[in-house]
């Protein structure tokens, strides 16, 4: 009795894991990571500056 998994081509397995979305191109992942990092840094800095403004007003 043969294993049914070995009958399935490797491309069919990878397509089912990825779904219908194509793989991103070479620089897209790095640019998304950089954009997320920039956004998070800006949000942290804006929170910090707003916290300082509120603390100065209280004293």
Describe, in plain words, how this protein is organized in 3D.
By secondary structure, the protein is an all-alpha fold. It has a domain at 26-59. Helices cover 75% and strands 0% of the residues. The chain contains three helices and no strands. The longest helix has 31 residues, at 28-58. It is rod-shaped, with a radius of gyration of 24 Å. The model has no long low-confidence stretch (mean pLDDT 76).
Q: Keywords for this structure?
A:
mainly alpha; 3 helices; single chain; 0% strand; 75% helix; rod-shaped
The biggest sheet, with number of strands, parallel, antiparallel or mixed sense and barrel status, is: none
Q: Give average pLDDT, whole number.
A: 76
Radius of gyration: 24 Å
Overall form? rod-shaped
Query: What low-confidence regions span 5 or more consecutive residues with pLDDT below 50?
Result: none
Order of helices and strands: HHH
Multimeric status of the protein: single chain
Brief summary of the model shown:
The protein has 59 residues and is mainly α. It is 75% helix and 0% strand.
What is the secondary structure topology, with strand pairs?
Elements: H1 4-7, H2 10-18, H3 28-58
